[in-house]
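User: I'll paste a sequence; please echo it back and then give the predicted structure.

Assistant: Echoing your sequence first, then the prediction.
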Amino acid sequence: MALPEATTTTNPSYEDVVEPLLRAHDGDPSALLAAYPNFDVEAVLEKLFELPYLHEACENNHFHAVRGLVQCGARLQRVSWGALTPLYLACWGPGGRADLVVWLLSHKDARDTVNWVTSQGCTPLHEAAYRGSIALIRVLLKHGADLTLQNAEGDTPENAAWREGMKESALFLGEAAERAHAVLQLGEWRPHKQSRFPPGYRAAMRTLVVLAKARKPNVPLALDCERYPHSCLSLLPEELLQYLFAYITTPHVPDVWTKREKK
């Protein structure tokens, strides 16, 4: 496709100029900046909807354009109409790309918007739930997405998935919420202060016994726990993991923790 003749305008068309140039150069903005030396990366393209270049690129899942625009100085915390952020639009766009979201979340400015709430009360996790994308949900949860936030209709991400008929995503979010609840209880509990076991504790201890026997030296415990994604251990901070690991490996630990709980 032939590109329009280069001019000194600061607002070239995203669809006809910016995206094709960045795609042709694999995200390198040099050619774009050479053709448009006064390029205004923060310019609003559609006055009605107030979409800057980066938001347009994220909405359409144009990875190469997103990389190039960020190199040009586009802000990952810029908010458009409806209080939409680039991260939110990357999850909202058709067929939201997990690799694009992972790349965005590698930047602190984007990570700071992981629980940003739009004017409709939705978060990026709500949009991932609407789309039924477990890959996006996993990425967002790994970077601190809140499972409990409600949108304008009072729906959590799990409820939003059920509303849209995304059964697999809804079940996944429900299990994640249960693990997160168990983690909160584990984080507030210490063995020497309380005799009753909170939900998830026995399973956590059984997993730690396995780790104690098979753990490689000099490997962070949190990394080991990633091998057990169905255990609440995968969500525990390293400091608490070290505490529990030290406790389970001491001689006085009752053998009951290594066995299945009797009903």
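Residues 1-8, 253-263 have pLDDT under 50 and may be disordered. Residues 189-258 form one domain.
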